Amino acid sequence: MPTDPNIALLFAAAGLLGIYGEFCFPGTVIPGAAGGVLFLLSVAGFVEMGARLSAAIFLLAGFVFLAAEAWFHTRWILAIAGTALIVVGAVRLHQHMHPWLATAVSMPLALLTVFLFFIAVRASENKKHKEGVVFWHSDDIFSSVRNTHLGKKEITLGRDS
Q1: Residue-wise pLDDT tens digits, 110-139
Q2: Are residues 10 and 17 in contact, defined by beta-carbon separation less than 8 angstroms?
């Protein structure tokens, strides 16, 4: 368990990167397990060192803002506010935290988080659009309806291959 708040912050960042790696490449157990252990060690270290509750609230609110930006597309307003909240939360986490290190670690981590949220939301939206194209029947025959260049509707039936 780290006793220096700067090392605990680096553990937290490395842990979150490992968890992100597990989400990007599911099935590889080592990044997720190592990331979870590092993140829990950093949380335990911050609790033992007496981290400020207000900083934890700033960090949590920042991640909520980043997720809201990915869902609501507010033209980067919530992303900028979430990144600022995460940086302020990281700087305020402990009285002996170096501000330059907290900023250098938390800002790229916040930007990576918003990027991954955008990818997840876009993949979810693409999946919804693809599901609405094909209508499955119980006899395993699919049909699709499309407009031809003459303005008539064409119905095609066929087997799924």
Answers
A1: 999 888 888 888 887 777 665 554 444 444
A2: no
Domain count, the chain: 1
Examine residue 155 and state whether it is found in any structural domain, yes or no. no
Rounded to whole angstroms, how far apart are CA atoms 133 and 99?
52
pTM, two decimals, is 0.71
**Bridge partners of 141?**
159
Answer yes or no: is 142 within a domain: no
Dig out the tokens for 105 from the structure: 């670690």
Range of the domain at 25: 5-133
CA dist., res. 148 & res. 115, Å (int): 39
Distance CA 97, CA 128 (A): 44
Report yes or no on 147 lying in a domain: no
Residue 48: how many other CB atoms lie within 10 Å:
12
Let me know the angle formed at the C-alpha of 49 by 113 and 63, rounded to the nearest 5 degrees.
15
